[in-house]
Fold this sequence. Notes:
Layout: H1 3-17, H2 20-35, H3 38-41, E1 53-55, E2 61-63, H4 64-68, E3 73-77, H5 84-102, E4 106-111, H6 115-124, E5 131-133, H7 138-143, E6 146-148, H8 154-159, E7 169-171, E8 174-178, H9 181-185, E9 200-202
Parallel strand pairs: 3-4, 4-5
Antiparallel strand pairs: 1-2, 3-9, 6-8, 7-8
Amino acid sequence: MSLQEKLDGFKAQFKTQAPAEAFEAFGRSTQELIDSGQAERALQAGDQVPDFVLTDSDRNDVALKDLLAKGPVVLTFYRGVWCPYCNIELQALEEVAEEIRARGATLVAISMQGASDSRKSQKDNNLSFPILTDKAGELANKFGIRWTLQDYVIPIHEASAFICRASMVTVNGICQCLLAMLSIRTARLPTPKSTLTTLVVLSRQTCSLFSTNCVPRLPHNSS
Length: 223
């Protein structure tokens, strides 16, 4: 089963379980996000990626420049352990992780969640690659993929099983979360196997941006 089929299957299951008003609110939130044009304002293929030093789940510092010294770097932004869609995507990336490494690249996930939740994500999804902590989504903001939750969506998340306290932050009193930019620009989600050469590959000078973590057309993406 492809990644897209797994995501579609979970969406269908979620629709049968979630209250209709919640599903409609998520859809409205997603459409507003698409209409805002934020995807077009984010980093694009060929743009310079901001340098960073983040901590991994063992609280060790990880610097982009050190990763690049070893070769290309593949980044995926990940909302958190609470997000089933994100976990499905991480599992799909794990399926091609060895191929990515065989091409001389380093695979890294980045999330606003803390170290303990990242360790749980790695254990639950049997990941062989690290998850780095992006405190308050500061790096995501530089990429242009941190966005503001609409007021009418927040109570739904707080009352649902998909509560995202682990990776939702408040910046200047406003709730923020991560946005998957690629999927806003495409109707279907490519599988990692078919897009190994177009994942977020960073060179020492430029980058190509590819973030698949939660397709906006899925209901949770108003989180």
